[in-house]
Every structure is written in structure tokens, then in C-alpha cells.
Amino acid sequence: NMALISDVPGVPQGLCMDRYEASRADATAAEAGSNELYAVSRQGAVPWTNISDTDAADQACRGTAINDRPVNEGGIPGFTPEKRLCSEIELRTACGGSDALPYEGDTIIPGACNDATVGADLATAGSFPSCCTEEGICDLAGNAGELVASPGQGLFGGTTNDTDVRCSFTAGVSGVPSPSVGFRCCTHPVQ
């Protein structure tokens, strides 16, 4: 369940990004699940949180535990080494699609995304339609803050515990698993 972002500086083929925060394969609207073999992107599922290790998040995106072959070598589509943890630059690019987004720029609209003004509870993926991009990528700000595969490996977008949720929000990661820290997966389009 990925969206194509075609206007990515320095990436002529564009970028595919999961529309929703990563969830465990067996997650539901009521339970976070326990299957940690691979990550899925599913609207209405509880996001995969309590993860603070970018390597573990990257392996979940790649489905390393069940598949280590690219699609063109017989790998399972969607669970391939091509899918990986998104970088901060990729997440920022996805955020920049429209000035109308509630979390773009300096204006913050409290409650448009799952932030501390709504409550401190994690919502299921995609529960805030006002917090989705034109491409249908939801919860880039608020809900679960997202680990990034970038130098400095920080947290992107703010969490349900923050009031300053927007694409310019970044924070360090303590290394301690947190119920407000999750991740998102990206890949490049298959040529």
C-alpha cells in the first residue's frame, strides 16, 4: 500500500512510500500484534511502536526474517530487500506536496493530526484524514514519531505527546523503546 512521489530532487524515477505508518502483519484496530517478521502498511491498524533501533526497523521493512532475495530473483513482492526504512529527506519531500497541509510550514493547526491537543493515545494508522498528503500518505506528523535512516538517526514529525507536530519537527532518539516511536518504509519504483 504505497504512494508514488514523482518530484524527488536527485531521484529521477521518484520514490514509493508506505501510505501508513508501519504495523506488524497481525496488527488490528484493537491490538498491535506480535508478528515481528515484517512490516505492513495498513489503514486502521495499530502502528508498530516500542522500537528505537533503526537497524531493526530497516530489517522489518525489508522482511529480512522471511525473505532475502530481490523480486527479480524470485523474492516475494512487498517483502523484498528493496523496501527499507525511509530517510529524513524522503519524509520531508513527502511532506512538501501542498501548503494546505496542516503540518507544513510554520502554521500549526491543533488537532488536525494526532497531537497532544487531541490526547496522548496512539491512533490507528490513517485515523486523521486531515493529516494526509495529496498522494494519500498519512500521519507524517503526529501519532507515532518516525525513526529515520539518516545521519544522526533521529525522530521525525513529532508524536501524539507533542504539540509542535509538523514536518520540520525532529528530535533525538534515546535508544529506549517508546510507545510513541514507530517507523515507515520506502523503496524506489520497479523499473
- Spatial shape: globular
Q: Averaging pLDDT over every residue, what do you get?
A: 81
Strand order in the sheet with the most strands: 1-2-10-5
Percent in strands: 5-15%
Low-confidence stretches: none
Description of the molecule:
- This protein has 191 residues and is mainly beta.
- Helices cover 9% and strands 15% of the residues.
- It has helices at 54-62, 88-95; strands spanning 2-5, 15-18, 22-24, 39-41, 84-85, 145-147, 155-156, 170-171, 181-182, 185-187.
- The strands form three sheets. Strands 1-2-10-5 form a four-stranded antiparallel beta sheet.
- The protein is globular and about 50 Å long.
Draw up the topology in text.
Layout: E1 2-5, E2 15-18, E3 22-24, E4 39-41, H1 54-62, E5 84-85, H2 88-95, E6 145-147, E7 155-156, E8 170-171, E9 181-182, E10 185-187
Parallel strand pairs: 6-9
Antiparallel strand pairs: 1-2, 2-10, 3-4, 5-10, 6-7, 7-8
